Amino acid sequence: MTPVTVPQNNLAHERRSALITTLLVLVALLLGWWVKTAVQNATRTIEMSGYTAAVPDGWLVQEGAGDLIFIARNPQALDELYRLSQLPAAADLAVVAENRNLARVRLDDTYRVLEASPVVFAGQDAYKVSFARADVDSPGLPNVIEGVDYYFALDDQVMVLSLEANSETFAAALPRFQKFVQSVSYNGGE
Fold first, then answer.
1. Which residues contact 147 (CB under 8 A, 6 or more apart)?
2. Are 123 and 138 within 8 A, CB to CB?
3. pLDDT above 70 covers what percent of the chain?
4. What's the rounded mean pLDDT across residues 16-21?
5. Residue 180's CB: how many other CB atoms inside 10 A?
6. Span 65-72, mean pLDDT?
7. How far, in Å, CA of 125 to CA of 131, rounded?
8. Buried b (16+ CB within 10 A) or exposed e, 73-82
9. pTM of the model
10. Distance separating alpha carbons of residues 75 and 72, to the nearest angstrom
């Protein structure tokens, strides 16, 4: 039997083909990641009751009543929502937060404050309340909903920005919510 020899030219061609294929796959993956990121980070600006905010594109926005200005809800995960509320100011933000927490406990006996403290958010003094509650209306076993409220003083009002999401997705939802918080501005109802 005679050994088969492969010409060097064919080996170089195969290596070049493998390298080109690898580079094309990497470029396609990077392009796909870029498109996915652009779609996930797309926002639209809404204006209601003197507030302007950038909400994720495709989210459902419902105008509120009373202290609630609006709710923006993720249509792909209905338990993930942003809420913007406006409350009368008090001596300090901790008092406003405590009064709101007491009202929530009266309405939902599963509501629990996990942590409450003053913070500085994007260079602005605020008060942060982390909470959890059970979604007993969900089919099957109740879902645990985690949330966070940021309280900001605005002249004679307090702006409250809230996130609620299923506890399993809360950590992933938080960075996008923090971008939303930074996008909110108030022009005094003009």
1. 130, 131, 132, 133, 162, 163, 164, 165, 170
2. no
3. 90
4. 85
5. 20
6. 94
7. 20
8. bbeeeebbbb
9. 0.77
10. 9
SS3 labels along the chain: CCCCCCCHHHHHHHHHHHHHHHHHHHHHHHHHHHHHHHHHCCEEEEEECCEEEEEECCCEEEECCCCEEEEEECCCCCCCEEEEEEEECCCCHHHHHHHHHHHHHHHCCCCEEEEEEEEEECCEEEEEEEEEEEECCCCCCCEEEEEEEEEEEECCEEEEEEEEEECCCHHHHHHHHHHHHHHCEECCCC
C-alpha 28/C-alpha 133 separation (Å) is: 43
Token code pair at residue 92: 């300090």
- State the residue for tokens 């004679």: 156
Q: Which two tokens stand for residue 15?
A: 């290596």
pLDDT tens per residue across span 164-190: 999 999 999 999 999 999 999 998 754
Please state, in angstroms and as integers, the Cα–Cα distance from residue 128 to each residue in 21, 50, 71, 162, 182, following that order. 51, 23, 19, 10, 15
pLDDT in tens, 97-128: 999 999 999 999 999 999 999 999 989 999 99
Q: Is residue 151 over pLDDT 80?
A: yes
Residue 116 carries which side chain, given as an amino acid letter?
A
Question: For residue 6, what pLDDT band results from cuts at 50, 70 and 90?
Answer: low
User: What confidence score (pLDDT) does residue 5 get?
Assistant: 59
